[in-house]
Amino acid sequence: MKKKKNSSQNGTITVNRKARYDYHLRDRYEVGIVLQGTEVKAIRNGHFNLTDSYAQITDGEVFLVDAFIGLYDQGNRMNHEPKRTRKLLLHRSEIRKLERSVHSKGMTLVPTRAYFAGGRVKLELAVAQGKRLHDKRDKIDRDQADRELRSYS
């Protein structure tokens, strides 16, 4: 008999929906993340939030800033700091490519989603360009018009 796969093992953990609203997403990369033991356990319990987080390149390394991983309930004194800066794992050539992209005007690195791949936590990191206010308003107007059309049919 075939074993059922655990959905928390191979599925999406969280999605940064605000990133699609605030940015035009360009290239996407799958990156690893360096975590402590209690962080992984807290993520498995669903205590992970990417809203308002971003990545920055410092001295040839990429770091995730302002991502919230809640405290693990059974962590005691060995628990982690919820908003600490975490190192991201990429190949050196990918880091160079990201560095060139980010140095162009208005580009930034934004995590769009987190998921499990083979029992490890992975992030989808996107090179993004900030939207202007009128871009956001146009998108809202288009979405509202689509909803109205669907309600009439």
Give an overview in words.
The chain has a single domain (11-152), classed as Small Protein B, Chain: A. The chain has a 7-stranded antiparallel beta sheet with strand order 1-8-9-2-7-5-4. It has a two-stranded antiparallel sheet with strand order 3-6. The protein has helices at residues 7-10, 17-22, 37-44, 92-103, 133-152, and strands spanning 12-15, 23-33, 48-49, 54-58, 61-65, 68-69, 86-89, 107-117, 120-130. The radius of gyration is 18 Å and the shape is globular. Mean pLDDT is 85; it is low at 3-9. A hairpin with a 2-residue loop joins strand 4 (54-58) and strand 5. With 153 residues, the chain is an alpha+beta fold. Helix content is 33%, strand content 36%.
Any key phrases for this structure?
single chain, alpha+beta, disordered N terminus, two-stranded antiparallel sheet, globular
